[in-house]
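Mods, move this if it's the wrong board.
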Amino acid sequence: MAQQKKNTALAVMNDFQIVSRYDGMTPEEREELQDQMEDLDQESGIVCRKIKIPASGGTAYEVHGEDDDDTDPMKTITGVVVFTHRLSGYWPSSYGAAKNPEDKLPTCASMDGKTGIVQIGDRAGEVITCETCPWNQYGTARDQAGNQARGKACKNMRRLYILMDGDPNLYLLTVPPTSIKDVNNQLAKIAPYANKVVTLSLEKAQNAGGTPYSKVVVKKTGVLPPAAAAVVSELRRQIKAQYQGMALTMDDYTAAPERGKAVDVNPDDAEWEAMNGGGAFQDAPPHGDNEAPPTGGGEPLPFA
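Not the wrong board. Structure tokens:
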């Protein structure tokens, strides 16, 4: 007797509400609000509330409210990923060494993970190809003691712009290097993703060095009805036109504020062996010693 195929169709989430801050206002109230907003200096870029990932393997997100000090722990977040993009940043100093706000800016930043732009110094404005940059190779990272580590000196991340049910605010979650591969795979499985309702959670994991960290997990929950999907599609178009104006800072890479050290993703022993000429792992291409930066501390960028 033939087995019946499992029904994998997602339910349409008719009760998922895409709302705006103008909902419920009379035309007069909306006009007055818009008039008052025009009196203010418009903030550049996209206005978002931040979602932070805790340090040391915590399993609850920290979701910011109107103020940075106003946060709520959330074990799961249900919403729509309106837009997502890769980004990368290189900071020459180790995590926690930045004392001034301007030190949080990366020496080089890429808003698509492909092309970097030098942000500071005499070479500011120079364009760098991320794929061939020596600092974007495994084995170029430094640990807290300044010793060579298996990770990358350049931190590869991913931003998720999220809408929650019945909430007019847009939320920004920056996925750290430790969760990049998993989140990429999870989003690819549910693509097209912008018409899906997903649930984000955190799992406790350990890197190759035994350090605990929080891994982002994305699971599909349902499908938006056509009218809501059309609203999200338009919002996605607007964000895509503006996202490169959102500055990258150390806060994107670190865990929740004042909650411990950021953790790098490190290849395990088998992956490390493969990248150095053995095994069959092909996720990252091998690199020779001549492509890595020198082992001394405080070394400059190769393009500085």
